[in-house]
Amino acid sequence: KALLAITLLVAVSALPTASDKSVQVPTACTALTACGKCVLFSDCVWCSVEAACVGGTEAGPNNGTCVTFDHRFCAGEPCDYYTTCGTCVNDPFCGWCADDNECLDMTVQ
Fold this sequence. Notes:
Blueprint: H1 35-38, E1 44-47, E2 52-57, E3 60-61, E4 69-70, H2 85-88, E5 94-97, E6 102-105
Antiparallel strand pairs: 1-2, 1-4, 2-3, 5-6
């Protein structure tokens, strides 16, 4: 059996924020049309029922537009949905494999 090294990074700062100069931040969360893009920004939340990105935090949308929302990761997406370590490790069910540059399911079976 090959031993697979899984690197789990627990870092709150793994995702870009509006103050991160290396990332082009959209003028409004509403310009983002997919959960995966929306949750990259700490000041945005994805409203899954409405299929819309709005301003908000882990507490929810700023204007109360939705009850069911995702912040920092997209609930229900498989781990291979994530393509970077930063987005992968924000999903509590996933871990990043640095050797293969892929996001793996970390649920116990």
